[in-house]
Amino acid sequence: MLFLFQYKQQSPDKRIMFWFMIMASALYFGHYCYFSREESILPITDTIYSLANLSVYPLYYTYIKNITSNKLNIRHILLYLLPAMLVAVGNAIAYALEPEDTRSKFIHDYLYHETISFSSGNFWLPMLHSMARIIFPIQVIICLYFGTKKIKAFNNQLKDIYSDTEARDLSIINILITLMLVTSIGSIALSLLSKSYFSDNQTILVFPSIAFSTLLFLIGHDAYHRQFTAADIQREIPEIQLAAIEDNDTDAPTSKEESSAMPEQNHSMANVPHDLADKLLVLLRDEKLYLIPDLKITDIAQRLQTNRNYTYYAITVELKTTFADLVNSMRIEYAQQILTTNPHINMYELMTQSGYSSESTFFRNFKKITGKTPKMWIEESNL
Hints:
The protein is mostly helical. It folds into two domains: about 10-235; about 270-380, Orthogonal Bundle (Arc Repressor Mutant, subunit A). About 70% of the residues lie in helices and about 0% in strands. The protein is built from 19 helices and no strands. It has helices at about 1-10, 10-35, 40-55, 55-70, 75-95, 100-115, 125-160, 170-195, 195-200, 205-225, 230-235, 255-260, 275-285, 295-305, 310-320, 325-340, 345-355, 360-370, 375-380. About 30% of the residues are buried.
């Protein structure tokens, strides 16, 4: 009961990750039963394995979709999981209807030796297993492709809202997706050898098992410690329309301006003051608002006494940059001014005086904008 209570208290993305981990654990259980030759329960474990194997990537994609758009659509989740459910149900029915002797023959001949005779009428089980092998790589490609697009759109939107995005963006998930792709290619390659090959060479399984286990740990660790998602953007800026790239949306954003979706659709920009961009730059420089840690575009819009959409338009269209890049360029310019007058300043003091609260963010932006580290810049400037 306590477990169920805690589960209900979790955010939707944590619930999705919970089921992702359940399915990943089911994969391990299925492998264990197969390689332990637990043939008496193999019809059950093989069915569970088929469900888990075709559910892992759709569930992870659902997790990405939820943290980037805050839209948990049960209909979409069921659609993503439909292939897994159909194959699993088909397996369960086929095993149940199969006579015991032909069922045992299928397990012995097909699952362990990759040979099958259709003379006994045993047709559905090998067909369903073959379908699963075809569906899996298709799922990998679709989930990782659209997942990457959603992450890119989300990260772009963050740069249009916040001056500091490092603790908020999904760069780590991009890395995890790359690792998942590498792991998946390995899995697909190994599947071509078939399980039967490894049933007699189980030592080889140590390496893919370690790789897969490490990846699962990293995914779970990131999900458990993730502090910022699309829900937090909407909590801080309730009226914002989050960027959305739907799988079946033919009008999905194709450019940065569209994907950011900061000006609401059909919102007219005809009334944007012609000098708003100039006023914005003057405000930032004269009052040094760029030195405020975690400055947001809504803070600037309030000081300009205008709305967020007009401010966004002035930055992205007239100044042709993002809010984060604009603020960080001013911060690094200010840091260079400090170094010019005080080249021996402590780096931590330089960081805080320049409006940063994170050393990694400061050094990353300094090198991105100047092409050098602060130390290299001082040396090359002969200060």
